[in-house]
Task: inverse folding
């Protein structure tokens, strides 16, 4: 029987799975999608290749797990940035600032790499459901502001945020981009 490195088998399995996800993310960020395979990820995690399949039936399953982990971390950071901020426009500003700062720190890079993955439609839908949950703070702000159609407005906000993310990802100053994004969202393209 293999040795476990935790008080229970369930905790050991959770630790092993987390190690594979972390290793997979490192490999993905270093070498792109082509570098992610069971052998490379297992070696990086310090595990036997056959162990990979105990946790992930396919590479797609690992990629989705990596994305879910990254989205959950992103969501937690956004929630922390919004904690205690006055509702309405101050929260929108905090959301924009946090999004651009996290992008500058490289925390959005995983999304860019995973966008290239050719995931099965059902797995892609799983990710989109989680991604849509990231707009929850925007929907709350839009509700506070009394926007008539918050779902439609949230999609438009997402488009402007996405443009800002692309600018920051390509080296633009995240503070200046945050200012521009906030101005665009609150006053339009002309100030």
Result:
């Amino acid at each position: 029987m293999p040795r476990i490195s935790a008080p229970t088998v369930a905790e050991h399995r959770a630790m092993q799975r987390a190690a594979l996800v972390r290793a997979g993310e490192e490999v993905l960020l270093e070498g792109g999608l082509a570098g992610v395979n069971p052998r490379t990820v297992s070696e990086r995690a310090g595990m036997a290749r056959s162990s990979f399949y105990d946790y992930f039936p396919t590479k797609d399953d690992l990629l989705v797990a990596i994305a879910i982990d990254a989205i959950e971390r992103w969501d937690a950071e956004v929630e922390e940035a919004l904690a205690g901020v006055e509702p309405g426009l101050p929260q929108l500003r905090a959301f924009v600032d946090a999004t651009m700062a996290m992008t500058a720190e490289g925390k959005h890079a995983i999304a860019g790499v995973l966008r290239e993955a050719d995931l099965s439609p059902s797995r892609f839908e799983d990710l989109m459901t989680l991604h849509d949950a990231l707009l929850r703070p925007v929907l709350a702000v839009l509700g506070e502001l009394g926007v008539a159609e918050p779902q439609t407005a949230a999609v438009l906000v997402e488009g402007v945020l996405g443009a800002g993310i692309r600018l920051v990802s390509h080296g633009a100053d995240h503070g200046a981009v945050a200012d521009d994004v906030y101005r665009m969202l609150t006053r339009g393209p002309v100030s």
